[in-house]
Give the backbone structure.
Amino acid sequence: MHQALGLAAQALFLSNPNPRVGCVLVGRDGGVLGVGFTQRAGGPHAEVMALRDAVAKGADVRGATAYVTLEPCAHHGRTGPCCDALIDAGITKVVASLTDPNPLVAGQGFARLRAAGIEVVVGPGADESRELNIGFFSRMVRGTPWVRLKAAMSLDGATALENGASQWITSRTARSDGHAWRARACAVLTGIGTVLDDNPRLDVREVATPRQPHVVVVDSQLQTPPDANLLLHAGERQVLIYSATDNDARRKALEARGAQVICLPQTSGGKVDLAAMLRDLGARGINELHVEAGHKLNGSLVREGLVDELLVYMAPRLLGMARGLAHFGPLAALADGLELQFTSVETLGPDIRITARVAGRDAF
């Protein structure tokens, strides 16, 4: 199972919106017959890749055990049911980490395997598999993506100077690591303020990736310029612009550049309904949403309870009077602050990376 989890991790940048799954086929003598991990959406799943690998090696998988990091699927999507492939191949035992939360599966794969006389064991590697697929579980159970808010800041909490300058607070090492987190996400979200101030591309450049994440812009008044950098490669990825008002001329100009404009009902303040936006993104197959925005949009997401996890890069410098990570409040008491749980602290060159999860947020 440890090997299967390592294979699943190889699908980290590849399989979205499908879960990251690995599979190892083991013969009755304990030898590995075939291995595989889930390919691009529409391509073979981990079990089929492992079966193909075994065939390519000339191995006979009849009587073998399949170690797989998620329940084999039982439905016809863009590919056939993996449980049927294992049954047809003559597998006699399946050891799986977790039940698939997809309502189209949800135990049906295990039921089909058992009905065919295959022994099924569930549980080994469950925590690791779930963590690897936290966004997929979030979308299937809650209907919304896992929201990870990324920020680069000084030791005294500054993410930009008062004049907006922020490039670069942290080192190249930290920025490369940040691009790896971008690459694993289904989509990168920012606000119109960042678009107008920084004109970012929001693509992955610092690490190799087989796919680029989609781009999401919160733009209440539809102010995104048609020549914005994030539209340069709109044909290779989706660019979704969420607005609270419709302007026919601006919408058509953006659509001509390959963007898709989604107009949501306004909040009382005339802003985009962020909770409704997350529900729409979930319906579009977005598992992990990587937020790289300014302190205003960050603050709105925190204030509305929509952030699940923080990814913070901290540089060993002080910047004094400057913009912070998230503008929300003021709070009446310290106890009203957002409670977090540190999940990791690592050194990256001269900087440190902190991951912190909102307390209890992953209990779904």
